[in-house]
Write a structure and sequence with these properties.
With about 400 residues, the protein is of the alpha/beta class. Strands 8, 11, 12, 13, 14, 15, 16, 17 and 18 form a 9-stranded parallel sheet that branches. It has a 6-stranded mixed sheet with strand order 3-2-7-22-23-24, with no helix packed on it. It has a 4-stranded mixed sheet with strand order 5-4-1-6, with no helix packed on it. The chain is globular.
């Protein structure tokens, strides 16, 4: 059966492609793909063309959140017991301009973790999510350092077990895209080799690794750092560790939690000055409480409390966040002293490149029609398009 052609032209005050800004821009889409991008004057009216004019608005590629534990009442680490399904997470992310996300799990007891990853893999394969697409699983643990476990339960943290790593990957059925580990643990280099062989990105984090330990796993192929500065030793003028190596080694891309709370503004600025522009990836690290009222929530087996949008565990440790990317990328601009053109790649094309999502993240012909439109000055989300379909539209639009 031939699919009926659907053409839409989105016209806004300006576009961020994100390598350049186009004033009075237009994006022409056909079904799930972008056909053309340019100034509005380049497009002529034609039959069967739906023109969507959005005044006082700008358009960017749909955001990609590659480290997010939940939202809208869904907890990625406990699929079977979440009060809300992954559909709720998909919906609320679309309401904030996110079109792709990697649900992220924390360490849990062995059988619980295997069962949850298998369930989550099935959810990620669904083609009928109502908003943003789940593009794969981010596994944060269990092979991390107990001293830097954050809100994760100590009993679930394990020494590196290559057999268990294989079981986790098998449970994910090809959907596990990245796994966080501590470089100082015994067999860390072997784990890196295993992950690379299975197509999983090895990411360093939740660690007290020194210079030698960090460089050993980078030499083995580790190329990513989980939420830089958080869950690792602070910078020191004489002792090099994971944070300083990740900042200065061109082989390593880094995540930054861009909620304005996890990292001091000057540390965000430092990262933006040290890392190449295409190696910065903004993540939310949101929990199931994102988009929900204050109260008690969970990250897998760990209880957290959210007060005034601020998440913490029972001992006062920061426990994820409730700030999603549509706010976070503006925090990245202000803290990192970046223009919108400089900051947009951190939440669009950079995560796309990091995870080989070559069909999205930029406004170019033949890429997926994943678009996010925001109100100028207020930055309020107005419209989100995923796979060419409008999945969110502001009520007053």
């Amino acid at each position: 059966m031939v699919k009926k052609r659907q053409r839409r032209l989105f016209k806004v005050d300006y576009l961020l492609t994100p390598d350049r800004r186009i004033e009075n821009g237009g994006v022409l889409c056909e079904n799930e793909q972008i056909l053309a991008v340019g100034g509005q004057s380049a497009f002529s009216p034609e039959e069967e063309l739906e023109i969507i004019q959005l005044d006082n608005a700008y358009l960017v590629p749909g955001f990609i959140d590659t480290h997010i534990h939940g939202a809208g009442g869904f907890d990625s680490s406990d699929v079977s017991s979440s009060p809300m399904p992954i559909d709720a997470m998909s919906n609320i992310l679309a309401q904030r301009g996110v079109t792709s996300f990697q649900p992220t799990v924390v360490a849990a007891e062995r059988d619980v973790m295997l069962k949850n990853i298998a369930l989550l893999a099935k959810e990620c394969r669904r083609q009928d999510l109502p908003g943003a697409d789940a593009i794969g699983i981010n596994v944060e643990g269990p092979f991390i350092n107990k001293e830097k476990r954050g809100a994760q339960q100590e009993s679930a943290i394990l020494p590196i077990d290559l057999g268990f790593a294989r079981e986790l990957i098998a449970a994910g059925d090809g959907m596990i895209k990245v796994m966080t580990f501590a470089p100082e643990l015994e067999h860390a280099a072997e784990l890196v080799e295993l992950l690379l062989d299975k197509g999983v990105k090895p990411s360093m984090g939740h660690s007290i690794a020194n210079e030698e330990q960090t460089l050993r796993v980078i030499d083995a192929g580790a190329c990513h750092c989980t939420h830089l500065f958080n869950g690792m030793l602070p910078l020191h003028q004489r002792e090099m560790g994971l944070a300083s190596i990740a900042l200065t080694d061109s082989r390593v891309s880094v995540e930054l939690i861009i909620d304005g709370r996890h990292i001091h503004p000057r540390m965000v600025d430092l990262a933006c000055r040290c890392k190449a522009a295409d190696q910065l990836i903004g993540v939310s690290d949101c929990t199931m409480a994102a988009g929900m009222p204050d109260g008690e929530y969970w990250i897998g087996p760990s209880r957290i409390q959210v007060i005034d949008g601020y998440s913490q565990s029972s001992d006062g440790t920061l426990a994820g966040t409730t700030t999603m990317l549509e706010s976070g990328w503006h925090s990245l601009m202000s803290c990192g002293h970046l223009s919108d053109i400089q900051a947009a790649p951190a939440v669009t094309v950079n995560p796309a490149k990091a995870y080989d999502l070559n069909d999205r993240g930029v406004l170019l012909p033949n890429r997926r029609a994943d678009l996010a439109v925001f109100e100028h000055k207020t930055n309020r989300p107005l419209l989100t398009v995923c796979r060419g379909q409008i999945v969110y539209q502001a009520e007053d639009l």
